[in-house]
Design a protein that fits this description.
460 residues, six-stranded mixed beta sheet, 22 helices, globular
C-alpha cells in the first residue's frame, strides 16, 4: 500500500509517495500550465509505483481545492492533514521549508495515520452547500450596497433616508428604489407631483393606499432642505443613481438565489426534520443542512463532535488552581453564526427554547452564552433525529406539554405588570433618577422603560 503527500500552490503540486516502511518510492511536480487534468496526470504517476496503486491514500492540507475534491470524486482516498500539526512536526524534526520537503512530511504523516478521512457528501448536499455560500455572499453584497447608498444620501439628502421606514423594507424596498431611480436628488424629487409619485409606487409593486402614500412622499420632498450648487448636486445625483442601480441588482441576485436555495433545500433528505423546528424557515434550515451535510454519522460520529465542529462545545483550560471555560473559536464560523441566529429565533417561537434561555440567563449567563448553550441543545437534538430517523418534536426536545392540536404556542408576557409600571413612574418622578437606573432596578432594558412606562419610542 502506498501513501502520498501533496503540497499545493497556485501554480503546481509537489507530490511524494512512500511505502509501508516509510521509504520514498517516487516524487514529481505537476504544473497546472502543462496539463489540463492534474488528477489524470497524478494517477498516471502512481500507476508504475505499485500493483495496488488505486488504494493509495493521499494526504493534503487543504481538501477544499479543486484537485482534492476532484480526486475524491474519482474514488481515491483523500485525508486531511492539519497544517498546524504539520508545522509542529517540521519544527520538531528541523525539516527545511520547501515544497519538496513539505510533500515528504505530509506523506509520512499520512502513513502514520495523522490524517482525518474526508467524508464526501452526496452531489445534492454539496450543491446545497454551494448555493448557500453564494446566497450568503449575495446577502452581504446587498447589505454593503444598502449601507453605501444610505451614507451617500445622508451626505446630500438626509430626508430620503427616513422617507421609507424599516417596516416596509427601508431603502431596499422596491418602492424606494423606483422613486430614487427616477429622482436621485432633492431638486428632482421636489418636482415630482402626486400623479408621477403614484405611478412610481405602482411600478414598485404597491397596490393599497397608493394616493395616500404618494401624498405623504410629496409632502416630505416638498419641505425646504439644504441644497448644494446645482452642478455639484447633479454629480451627486449621478452617483446616487448608480448606487441605486447597484442596490437593485444586489436585491435581485439575493432574491433569485433564495428561490434556488428553497428548491435545493426541499430536495435534501433531512428537510422534513429541520422544517419542523419552530422559528427555522427556509434560509436558516438550508444554512444548517448545508454545513452538516447528509452524512453526519460518518462525518462526525457523535453529537459531541458535531457540537465541537459548530463551536458550541465549551473548551476547558486548567493549570494548577486556575480553571477557565470559554467557547470554541476553532470551528465552522458558518455553522456557529447560523446556530446563533437559530437559537435567537427559537426564543420567540418555542416555549421550551424560551424557558431554557431564561433559565440560563437566571443562572448568570450572558445573552450570547445562553444562546450558544441553547444552540448546542438544539444541535444535539437534531443530530439524534438524523441518526435515528425520528421526526423532530420540540416538546420532547425541551420537555414541555404542547398546546391542544400539537402546535407549540409561546404566550407573550408583558415585561412589566401594572404594579411595576406604577413603581417605575414614581421612581422617574424622583429628581436625578435616570431611565437607565430605573431599568437596572427592574432588570429590564431602557427601551422597555421608554416603551411601556413613558410610552415613547426609544432613541439612542
Amino acid at each position: 500500500m502506498l501513501f502520498a503527500g501533496c503540497d499545493w500552490s497556485d501554480q503546481w503540486l509537489d507530490v511524494a509517495v512512500v511505502d509501508r516502511s516509510g521509504a520514498v518510492v517516487g516524487e514529481t511536480r505537476i504544473v497546472y500550465a502543462e496539463t489540463s487534468d492534474p488528477v489524470a496526470r497524478y494517477r498516471e504517476f502512481l500507476a508504475p509505483l505499485g500493483r495496488r496503486w488505486r488504494a493509495t491514500v493521499t494526504g493534503i492540507e487543504d481538501v477544499n481545492i479543486l484537485f482534492a475534491r476532484s480526486l475524491a470524486a474519482s474514488g481515491m482516498d483523500v485525508v486531511h492533514v492539519d497544517p498546524t500539526r504539520a508545522a509542529r512536526h517540521r519544527a520538531a524534526f528541523g525539516t527545511p521549508k520547501t515544497d519538496r520537503a513539505d510533500a515528504r512530511l505530509i506523506a509520512s504523516m499520512t502513513r502514520a495515520g495523522e490524517g482525518r478521512p474526508i467524508v464526501v457528501n452526496s452531489p445534492g448536499a454539496e450543491a446545497l452547500r454551494v448555493v448557500t455560500h453564494a446566497h450568503r455572499a449575495a446577502v452581504n453584497a446587498r447589505v454593503e450596497a444598502l449601507h453605501v447608498l444610505r451614507a451617500s444620501l445622508t451626505r446630500i439628502w438626509p430626508a430620503a433616508v427616513s422617507a421609507w421606514p424599516a417596516g416596509v423594507g427601508g431603502l431596499r424596498s422596491p418602492q424606494a428604489l423606483a422613486v430614487l431611480a427616477a429622482a436621485p436628488g432633492p431638486r428632482a424629487a421636489a418636482r415630482l407631483d402626486r400623479t408621477r409619485l403614484a405611478a412610481l409606487l405602482i411600478a414598485g409593486g404597491r397596490k393599497r393606499r397608493v394616493e395616500d402614500e404618494a401624498e405623504r412622499l410629496r409632502m416630505i420632498f416638498a419641505r425646504p432642505v439644504m441644497l448644494l450648487d446645482p452642478r455639484v448636486e447633479e454629480a451627486e445625483a449621478l452617483r446616487i443613481g448608480h448606487l441605486v442601480a447597484a442596490l437593485h441588482e444586489a436585491v435581485r441576485r439575493a432574491d433569485d438565489l433564495e428561490r434556488e436555495l428553497g428548491q435545493h433545500y426541499a430536495a435534501h433528505p433531512f428537510h422534513p426534520l429541520v422544517a419542523h423546528i419552530p422559528g427555522v424557515g427556509t434560509v436558516l434550515g438550508a444554512y444548517l443542512l448545508a454545513e452538516i451535510g447528509d452524512r453526519p454519522l460518518q462525518r462526525f460520529g457523535s453529537g459531541r463532535s458535531l457540537a465541537a465542529y459548530a463551536g458550541v462545545a465549551p473548551v476547558t483550560w486548567a493549570s494548577g488552581q486556575t480553571v477557565r471555560v470559554a467557547f470554541r473559536r476553532a470551528s465552522s464560523t458558518y455553522l456557529r453564526s447560523t446556530l446563533h441566529t437559530v437559537a435567537f429565533s427559537m426564543t420567540s417561537h418555542s416555549p421550551g427554547a424560551r424557558a431554557y434561555y431564561q433559565k440560563r440567563r437566571d443562572a448568570g449567563d450572558a445573552h450570547a452564552t445562553a444562546l450558544r448553550k441553547l444552540g448546542r441543545k438544539v444541535l444535539l437534538s437534531l443530530y439524534h433525529c438524523m441518526a435515528t430517523g425520528t421526526p423532530y418534536e420540540d416538546a420532547l426536545a425541551f420537555g414541555y406539554e404542547p398546546e391542544p392540536g400539537g402546535v407549540p404556542y409561546l404566550r407573550r408576557q408583558k415585561p412589566l405588570d401594572e404594579e411595576q409600571i406604577a413603581r417605575a413612574r414614581e421612581m422617574l418622578a424622583t429628581p436625578h433618577t435616570t431611565v437607565a437606573a430605573t431599568a437596572r432596578a427592574f432588570g429590564v432594558s431602557p427601551q422597555t422603560i421608554y416603551r411601556h412606562v413613558l410610552h415613547r419610542s426609544w432613541k439612542r
